[in-house]
Amino acid sequence: MIRSRTHTLAQFARRARMSAQRLRVLQNEQRLPTPDGVDPDGADVWTTATIDRWLRATGRTVPDDAVWPFGWADATERAEILWAGDITLPRGRSAAVTIFDGAGQPVIYAVPYAGHDVNRDTIAAAVIAQLDPDRRPGAVVVQPHLLDPGADGPHPYLELWRMPEQTTPPPPPAQDPAPTPLPRFLRRLLPTRAPVAATAAMPEPPVLGRQRRPDTPEYAGSVAASEAARVLNRPLPLWWAGTTTPEIVRTVRLRDQPHPLSIADTITDWPAAIARLTAALGNSMHTNHPQAFAALARETRAVHRHVTATLTHPTTGEGWYLAAAPQPPTWPAVAEQRAAVGAGRDFDPNAAATELDQLVMVEADRPYLPEKDDPYAGALRQAILLLRGRLARDYPTRVYTFPVAYSWADAHGPICDEYRLHLTRLTPADAHGNPEKPTRRLVRLLTEDASDAAIAHHQLLDHACERLVGIYRDPEGRLVAHLTAGFPHLADELLIEWPTGMPPAGWTEQTVIAADETYSATGLFALTPGPDGALLSPQPVPNPGDEPRYTFGYGGNSPAVLYQALVRCVLGDWTVAAQESWVGQLATSPGDKRHRPHSRLWEQIVTSKGSLRLSWADVQQWVRDDQEALTRRRQGRR
């Protein structure tokens, strides 16, 4: 059986064949391994693998029943490869597998192919199933960590799974009160069955937690690559995430050399960064929009430095080697010099804001293609994001003129109906009205601002178009998409380009802040009567400088977003009332046993059941009351 239980210090001492007093001394000197947890009494405990790893690392005697590989002797010959190839996994996924002969016991190395996201337990069970049943007891599965190109360096550890040395026999079948006598030849083959009364008197002990199926391996923690290599007498490959393609794996397997295969860089940020910069140069961004190009140049140079440092980490070590190493980043002709000049340009906020407005319009109207097929669109988008980040704090009025994609997933009720009355349906002749040839602006709405990688991986655009009913424009020119419901019990979904700036002029004492009843996030609108008493078009209530994830009718973090939005709209302050700051400060009061904010506005938000209706005049007064209360409280602390 796999010994994966935990041990107290006294049990640690018995396994290590040392006195508990000596172990306490080592523990006080911080020479014992870090505990894996604590027992119900709060005492430190260690797993068997941790103890055995420490015993071998410190040159002490390892018990005969030590878990693999700590109890195994050093191999004197290279482990033979019994089989190497691919196995099929659920949902069309696959993994590369190599089975070594580890002193008569199978040691299986497995790594999933790039883009084939599969649970490691699933892979371990699948590779064990490839073995003949008589070879499974005691078999070992190791899987490497796929290395992150942004990490500090290789992580030379493997995840370990193990089959028990002996499979647990299945429980005997339930006894029939009057069993039928078996033929003699069957009685010789079957175990003797216990009497019914004895079985009933001794029930099986309960099993707590998830049970492992007897035909699947058990996770046994991590093991250093050096330990695994020691018992195989060969180093094991580690992989950068994204390099485990069938072609590269096949080449590495056939080479069977303990040093990396040089490959083109397809995994770091450099290929996309240099493609964007090159496209920007080709479209004269450095002359037409110098502030945007300067931001892009600075980022590209930073990516070059980071990737260069990342790819200079060691490629081999004790018991491991990198299977495939991307080639270091190189600058195309002219690009490096142009980037250096652009990066040195002084920042001009007024010029940057003007360029930002221009680039937003150009990029939004551009036909959608993935960035790999249209790197200039990627350059435009990245420059926009960089300029917004640079201007957001000091020039919010120039930045927060753009909307965010907001999903109203359960759009129903009288306000929803009124809002839709004022929408104009777009035809395919409209620049943003053809989902078969969408603009980048339309794709951002339909995919809720997802990245190109997420759109491709999860087929977000295809799924949205399958549910698309119509595309509209509201009176302010913002796009709205109508989608069928994502779940049977919900009303249809509206995707709305929601404003992020301050509320428009025109809200009056008669304006009402309103939302329909909903099961989760909802659309929040300002309803204002016109001079003739007729209701004007409902206007989305922004959360200035932030996203509108509005809920109400209960306490918690989510309604605080609504509270924050109303405070910012009243005071015209982009930074006031961060999600919980005002709510938390207003709740701090001696003798307040309920720990609820002393705020009329907050009280209205969290106690409104069904639909929400708040007078804008009342909201303004309540916000100013809260502001005065916080001012008095702060002055009282001085």
pLDDT < 50 stretches: 173-180, 182-211
Gross morphology: globular
The average pLDDT score comes to: 87
> What percent strand?
15-25%
The spatial strand order of the largest sheet comes to 4-5-6-7-9-10
Region (Disordered): 163-183, 198-218
Biased composition (Pro residues): 167-182
Quick synopsis:
The protein is α+β, with helices and mostly antiparallel strands and 638 residues long. It has 23 helices and 24 strands.
Please characterize this protein's 3D structure.
This protein is an alpha+beta fold and 638 residues long. Helices cover 36% and strands 17% of the residues. The strands form 6 sheets. It has a 6-stranded mixed β-sheet, with helices on both faces. A 5-stranded antiparallel β-sheet has the order 16-20-19-18-17. β2 and β3 form a beta hairpin.
Write the layout of secondary structure elements.
Blueprint: E1 6-7, H1 9-16, H2 20-28, E2 37-38, E3 44-47, H3 48-57, E4 80-88, E5 94-102, E6 105-112, H4 120-128, E7 140-144, E8 146-147, E9 157-162, H5 184-189, H6 196-201, E10 218-224, H7 225-232, E11 236-240, H8 246-255, E12 261-263, H9 270-282, H10 285-288, H11 290-310, E13 316-317, E14 320-322, E15 324-326, H12 335-343, H13 349-365, H14 375-391, H15 396-399, E16 404-408, H16 414-421, E17 424-425, H17 440-446, H18 452-458, H19 460-467, E18 468-473, E19 479-483, E20 493-498, E21 512-515, E22 525-527, E23 539-540, H20 557-571, H21 581-587, H22 600-607, E24 612-615, H23 616-636
Parallel strand pairs: 6-7, 8-11, 11-14, 12-15
Antiparallel strand pairs: 1-3, 2-3, 4-5, 5-6, 7-9, 9-10, 13-14, 16-20, 17-18, 18-19, 19-20, 21-22, 21-24, 22-23
Helix pairs in contact: 9-11, 9-14, 11-12, 11-14, 13-14, 20-22, 20-23
